[in-house]
Amino acid sequence: MNWDDLRIFLEVSRRSKLEHAAAHSHLDPTTVSRRIKRLEHELGLTLFERTRRGHALTPAGEKLAARVEAMESLSLDILADSSSEKSAAGRIRLGVTEGLGSGVIAPKLGTFKARHPQIDVDLIALSGFVSVPRRQADMSILLARPSAGRLKVRKLADYSLALYGAPAYLDARPPVTSREDLQDHTLIGYVDDLIYSAQLRYFDELLPGLTPHLCSPSILAQQEMVASGAGLGILPAFLARRVPGLVRLLPDQIQVERSFWLSVHEDVAGLTRNRLLADYLGEILHDLP
Q1: Would the N or C end of the chain have less CB density within 10 A of its end CB?
Q2: Residues 6+ apart with CB under 8 A from 79
Q3: How far is Cα 160 from Cα 11, in angstroms, rounded to an integer?
Q4: For position 181, what pLDDT does the model report?
């Protein structure tokens, strides 16, 4: 067993598909597959389940990935002299919900990179969560505080959601002066069986008995539907403010308060680069509406 094989194993664990790991390692997929099989033979363990969607870590693979990633992170910190923030180096994989990742964090990553040129960031912004305990990311921003796993957790920010509509829609439809009026309007929301967090069930909380007519698991798609005048939707204020002219409706009756939580795997929480990014996230989200 050698370090090169372990690093290849780590790339496959991060990227799932052999061809992606091979391209990043400047090898061909056949070589990567041979290296993984050799590592499994030497350890006497099955590290991956081969599926149609790629290579998925087994429990034994997850344990090894945690140890190898900790070794890699420690070596990078040593080489970079981790006592100095200016010399911090390495790559961070950050998982984040789609709206926050695309609407707030992505536009700010250039500033972070300028401050720390040797730190690279993989921003995984999805309609769902990226798992830190399963080593899919070094850190992840969640809608609820996680209660299990070897994690360091901190609250990043509170934010609010409200009901919005575009002038083009509101001008052509009956006025909205109460919740009861919403029965006569087109509502926009999540696809019910694709909701990935109880924190997103706004309709159950605010508009019981009403069902959205136009649905998407993507909050950005919902934002576009509202902005185009397709209907009314509950949006995070930090996304709604990006659309000029959106009108907030029933502010005294419809408002949701939620929080973002940052979870970092214990094995890498103390690394300088992860601390720098965590602090930067806290900085840019401090005044989130």
Answers
A1: N
A2: 89
A3: 38
A4: 92
CB hemisphere CA count around 142 (13 angstroms): 24
H helix or E strand, kind and range, residue 225: helix 219-227
Q: Look at residue 208 and give its three-state secondary structure.
A: coil
Q: What is the pLDDT of residue 90?
A: 85
In this predicted structure, what is the pLDDT of residue 247?
Answer: 96
How high is the pLDDT of residue 82? Answer: 46
pLDDT number for residue 164:
97
Give the span between the Cα atoms of 63 and 47, in whole angstroms.
Answer: 9
Report the alpha-carbon distance of residue 10 to residue 37 in Å, rounded.
Answer: 14
List the structure tokens of 66.
């945690």
Q: Is 125 helix (H, G, I), strand (E, B) or coil?
A: strand
The structural architecture, per CATH, of the domain 1-79 is Orthogonal Bundle (1.10)
DSSP assignment letter at 150: S
Residues of the chain with CATH 3.40.190.10: 159-257
What is the Rg, in whole angstroms, of the alpha carbon atoms belonging to the chain? 22
- 244: Cβ contacts below 8 Å, ≥ 6 apart: none
Instruction: Tell me where in the chain the CATH 1.10.10.10 domain(s) lie.
Output: 1-79
Residue 78, H or E segment: helix 59-79
Q: Would you say the C-alpha torsion 84, 153, 143, 160 has a positive or negative sign?
A: negative
pLDDT in tens, 190-203: 998 888 888 888 88
Q: Could you say which residues of the chain have pLDDT below 50?
A: 81-83
Place of tokens 């083009």: 168
